Amino acid sequence: MEQPAAANKPLYLRMKEDLLRRVQSGEWRPGELIPSENALAAEYGVSVGTARKAIEELADERLLVRQRGRGTTVAMHTHRQEVLRHYRLMTKDGERVNEETSYLDVASARASSTEAKVFGVNRGTAVTRVRRLRLYAKQPVVLEFLSLREDVLPGVGALIRATQPEVLYALLEREYHIIIAKVSEKIMAVKAEAEDTEALGVRAGEPMLEIERVAYDLNGRAVERRIMRARNDTYYLSEFA
Amino acid sequence: MEQPAAANKPLYLRMKEDLLRRVQSGEWRPGELIPSENALAAEYGVSVGTARKAIEELADERLLVRQRGRGTTVAMHTHRQEVLRHYRLMTKDGERVNEETSYLDVASARASSTEAKVFGVNRGTAVTRVRRLRLYAKQPVVLEFLSLREDVLPGVGALIRATQPEVLYALLEREYHIIIAKVSEKIMAVKAEAEDTEALGVRAGEPMLEIERVAYDLNGRAVERRIMRARNDTYYLSEFA
DNA sequence: GAGTGGTCTAGACCACAAT
DNA sequence: TTGTGGTCTAGACCACTCC
């Protein structure tokens, strides 16, 4: 008959959303064990099978990691396979360009109109801009321009300067409890410009890959934007079913 | 019941593999209903929950499609979302380049060493080569070079010439019962050559996207290789979690 | 040995499609 | 009305981790 209100959604979905909320809220942090199936089933007043279904869906989405005998933890972005899944630029030999990072500069700035549009904020909002190089076999291969929202990540510039992280998203998790849940990349072919010549040693006018990435947190909020310009002896690998 | 030996794998996995085999064998064809959960559970001598788990995994992998009240069917590649999932080239406006196809030529040839390597066959094995254009707003945007194994797809050249299909993988399903299960793409930046100038009207030397795709069937066998050269007012879209 | 997740069973009721 | 898949329950036993 008529439902008062609540959600007419299945129990396991409502439970899943609440578990997600608890991860978002920082109640359970990446790497930490969450309560067992039995404990959660009791807490939510559902059967173990239902609790399991909620947990399993989050595990399928790689937000949780289940280990028999040990328990269920919140996934960490530092886990090797996570890093690899996000970094899809390969050298001609089929190796991931993921070896070494060299920071060029970190600066505060006001959001350009593009940045404002991507982040959904007003033009002029504070952002942190970072330039860095990815190296492979000691050679610079990718020139990266990062742009981070300071309203969401206050003081991130200083942190980056101080720690020069290899894996930025691990820093966001550790310091801001922000988990990158989705990434969108546009890959284009462009001509090398003076800056590329300087940083990567490519000839001006040569074709290069340009990748524009936007990274979203669990709430679907755009947190970081990144332009990557790669030497054309690399390729971008995309595999899907 | 006690299994004599067989695999020590869980029941639902063995059942899943057998269901997969039955799809591969052509016993159930794309678009057809397969037996219900209850029928399959009875047939395999397992509980409904176990049968459900086997079926659900195949549905998660998009090989099966479940519809409440109706039944479970083998997925068809012609389903709109399937086509879109495979075609990731977008115009600057964010529209998929997927509107119209114009075939230039279809010919038989002997596998080059690259083709032989990709397909895992001897050099000189028969292949069918196809050149075609993808149009958007009546303008040619992508020049494609397809190469198909004739040992796996006998007579495919004549079929393509006769039907000029918009969706090649739907033709492979219909005529050869071959389901494309995995696709791997390498995206590179290259210079436009004479052939691109002719077909797409781009200036020689301009940067273009070149995409090399290999398509695999359910057995993991490489069936098709494709080079796509796209005008640089397009981009390749990649989204992942 | 205690506790975890992984597999498996055998039911129940429901929402939905087809007829 | 019949049969389908979707949700949910309440158990059982097992493989594994940790102490």
Structural summary, described in words:
- The structure is a homodimer of 241-residue chains.
- The first copy, chain A, is 30% helix and 35% strand.
- The radius of gyration of chain A is 21 Å and the shape is elongated.
- In chain A, helix 1 packs across helix 3 and helix 2 crosses helix 3.
- A six-stranded antiparallel β-sheet of chain A has the order 5-6-7-10-9-8, sandwiched between helices.
- By secondary structure, chain A is of the alpha+beta class.
- Chain A contains eight helices and eleven strands.
- The N terminus of chain A is likely disordered.
Strand order of the main beta sheet of chain A, please? 5-6-7-10-9-8
The low-pLDDT segments of chain A are: 1-5
Level-1 CATH class name of the largest domain in chain A: Alpha Beta
Tally of domains of chain A = 2
Helix content of chain A: 25-40%
Please provide the count of β strands of chain A. Answer: 11
The CATH topology of the largest domain in chain A is given as Chorismate lyase
User: What overall geometry of chain A do the principal axes of the alpha carbons give?
Assistant: elongated
Oligomer: homodimer
Second CATH tier, the architecture of the largest domain in chain A: 3-Layer(aba) Sandwich
Structural class of chain A: alpha+beta
- Find the CATH superfamily of the largest domain in chain A: Chorismate lyase-like
> Rg of chain A to the nearest angstrom?
21 Å
The largest sheet of chain A, given as strand count, sense and whether it forms a barrel, is:
6 strands, antiparallel
Treating each run of at least 4 consecutive H or I residues as one helix, how many helices of chain A?
A: 8
Identify the biggest protein-protein contact and residues per side.
Answer: A-B, 31 and 31 residues
Chain-averaged pLDDT of chain A: 93
Strand content of chain A: 35-45%
How far the N terminus sits from the C terminus of chain A, by CA atoms, comes to 42 Å
Order of SSEs of chain A: HEHHEEHEEHEEHHEHEEE
